[in-house]
Specification:
Blueprint lengths: L1 H6 L33 H18 L8 E9 L6 H19 L4 E8 L3 H9 L4 H18 L6 E4 L3 H16 L3 E11 L4 E3 L18 E10 L5 H10 L4 E2 L1 H12 L5 E2 L1 E2 L7 E2 L2 E6 L1 H5 L2 H4 L10 H5 L7 E5 L3 H15 L7 E4 L2 E3 L2 E2 L10 H8 L1 H11 L6 E3 L1 H31 L7 H4 L4 H18 L3 H22 L1 H7 L1 H24 L5 H10 L4 H5 L44
Parallel strand pairs: 1-2, 1-12, 2-3, 7-13, 12-13, 14-16
Antiparallel strand pairs: 4-5, 4-6, 6-8, 9-11, 10-11, 14-15
Helix pairs in contact: 2-12, 4-5, 7-8, 8-12, 13-14, 14-15, 14-18, 15-18, 15-20, 17-18, 17-20, 18-20, 19-20, 20-21
Length: 592
């Protein structure tokens, strides 16, 4: 099994820099007379208008609607890399925050398992495509477990239920008159699994992404009438500018659409490993037309032969598609047009985040600078990995990793600002108050400016989480810890305890105030560092069940009560030493 995993290149398709779809110029299409039957123009237009209306109204979600969040379905040509891990960590943080708000969350992830590249990767490893997919899909699940990813649905595009949904969707689009048959000849990149325009290629017709020559192919394929939906897409983006985020991604999408949309091939005659076209068993459905439907088939549960409309009613449309910027075109142009053709609602928001680099350089095996997520989490623990990438990468922009910066950041923020503040406060409480709170936190902080600071920062954190400004949300929560350190340094309770009397009583209240701030941090930072925050909660005398039952309302001041007994102080986050490789037997980090 391990040998099979090591055969693939560490590039998953959702992180390819896909430049464009095949350029299908009219002269190159040789139309047949025997096209498929289609609905009348009037019924087709009505279906389009209905889908657009659904898209517009979906933004006004009711409080009872679930919050449906998706990651891309990751391509299983190779094991998971840090790019896919980053997307999923961010998605998990968003899902956890929404659960804190009391929302019913449906967090969908999974694997995209069809296509020529999958068959090629399997053959190179000496296994069948199905065996290869089983191994790599399981590798994703194992990594998500190590990273504390609390997904609700994991869909595989090789699932029987998914195939049923894809075929029903295809048939619906066909009935709407949006699928036709034509010949196509062009230069094809096997790694990208797409036709390329010659003007976009390098010397010798090399793909600019993979630096390998494209091969000339001539195929008889089925095409989706994307061009038919150009005006509808333009109107949707004009009327719903929040649909594409961040805002500068919207500008990119509008530019693509204004340049003119061209129909694209949705089948392959030369690829066996895929879902057969319902009306032509000699062709398989193009991987993107297949994989995007995973966002819907994930709702079908254990039903092996689900009905498309019934499945849609179980949670669609998605509240948020979270993707890498390289697959923005598929999600912001192709996918909405496909949904309109099928008469289904559009997702409410598509967010395209940036890429990761290492030490300022693009990552790649040829450069010897790949970043292995399994290695990171096993060396440093899930909380450290999750925190660094959420806090240090501005969500939506590109971000860089360096090991020195990683270690310095998590040590300064998690071990020092948060961990040390909790540890020394509990130590003072044990020494001077027998680990028992002398008064309610609401009483202790009456008229205290520090309480006002904490409440202001919690409010900021919530707004930033809601706006998907995850790094800034972390910054606001960390500032609570920094303010707590400043407060305890200024008050110097260790000195007040020595004075006795009223000074000692004031010192005891100060400890309650700081520990209440720590309790609030444990709730507010839990979307990002769940294990660390659980340990903080347990140090404050709570159980795991109480932590898991916490909601965002628990960030309100006043949770700690007089008479509560705190746990014995012990470090909640072990400081990472710079030379961790010297002792590989020691697992350093959060909760490992």
């Amino acid at each position: 099994m391990a040998a099979r995993i090591s055969c693939g290149a560490w590039l998953a398709r959702p992180w390819h820099a896909v430049a464009s779809r095949p350029s299908i110029s009219k002269p190159r299409l040789q139309f047949r007379h025997a096209l498929f039957s289609s609905s009348s123009p009037s019924s087709s237009a009505a279906a389009t208008r209905g889908a657009v209306c659904c898209a517009g109204s979906s933004n006004g979600a009711s409080e009872t609607d679930p919050f449906v969040l998706t990651t891309p379905l990751y391509y299983v040509n190779a094991p998971p890399h840090m790019g896919s891990a980053y997307t999923t960590i961010a998605a998990d943080a968003i899902a956890r925050f929404q659960r804190l708000l009391g929302k019913k969350v449906i967090f969908i992830t999974g694997t995209d398992e069809h296509g020529e590249k999958i068959a090629t990767a399997a053959s190179a490893c000496g296994s069948s495509p199905r065996e290869h997919c089983d191994v790599i899909s399981q590798a994703y699940k194992a990594l998500w477990k190590d990273l504390d990813i609390a997904y609700d649905r994991f869909i595989r595009t090789t699932d029987t239920k998914h195939e049923a949904i894809v075929k029903q969707f295809y048939s619906r689009v066909l009935e709407n008159g949006d699928i036709y048959r034509a010949d196509y000849e062009g230069l094809y990149c096997i790694n990208c699994e797409e036709y390329k325009d010659e003007k976009d290629l390098l010397d010798n017709n090399c793909c600019p992404m993979h630096l390998k020559p494209c091969v000339r192919r001539k195929e008889d394929n089925y095409f989706f009438a994307l061009s038919k939906y150009q005006k509808s897409l333009e109107e949707i983006l004009e009327e719903n500018p929040e649909f594409i985020q961040p805002p500068f991604r919207l500008n990119e999408v509008q530019s693509w659409i204004r340049s003119g949309l061209k129909d694209f091939s949705i089948s392959r005659a030369s690829v066996d490993w895929g879902i057969p076209v319902p009306n032509d068993k000699k062709q398989t459905i193009y991987v993107w037309f297949d994989a995007l439907l995973g966002y819907i088939s994930a709702f079908s549960g254990e039903n092996k032969q689900p009905d498309l409309q019934d499945t849609v009613s179980l949670g669609w449309p998605a509240s948020l598609h979270l993707i890498g910027k390289d697959i923005l075109r598929f999600h912001a142009v192709y996918w909405p047009a496909m949904l309109m053709s099928a008469g289904l609602s559009l997702p409410k928001k598509v967010f395209g985040h940036g890429f990761l680099t290492k030490d300022g350089m693009k990552m790649g095996k040829s450069l010897g600078n790949t970043l292995e997520p399994n290695d990171l989490v096993h060396r440093f623990g899930s909380d450290a990995v999750r925190y660094f990438f959420v806090r240090e990468v501005e969500f939506g922009s590109d971000g860089d990793y360096s090991e020195d910066r990683f270690i310095n950041t998590v040590n300064a923020h998690l071990a020092n600002t948060i961990g040390n503040l909790l540890n020394r406060t509990l130590g003072l409480l044990r020494k001077n108050c027998k680990s028992t709170l002398v008064v309610d936190s609401s009483t202790a902080a009456d008229g205290n400016a520090f309480k006002d600071t904490v409440e202001m920062l919690v409010g900021k954190a919530r707004v930033h989480y809601e706006n998907l400004s995850l790094s800034t949300a972390c910054e606001a929560v960390l500032e609570i810890g920094s303010s707590g350190n400043s407060y305890i340094d200024e008050r110097a309770p260790w000195s007040l305890f020595k004075q006795g009397g009223a000074a000692s009583e004031a010192a005891a209240k100060d400890l309650v105030i700081v520990l209440e701030a720590m309790r609030i941090i444990a709730v507010a930072l839990s979307p990002v560092t769940p294990r660390l925050c659980l340990r903080i909660y347990e140090q404050l005398g709570y159980s795991a069940d109480q932590f898991n039952a916490a909601t965002w309302s628990d960030t309100r001041w006043g949770g700690l009560k007089g008479g509560q007994v705190m746990a014995q102080p012990k470090p909640v986050f072990a400081r990472i030493e710079n030379k961790v490789e010297e002792d590989s037997s020691t697992k350093v980090g959060a909760g490992r």
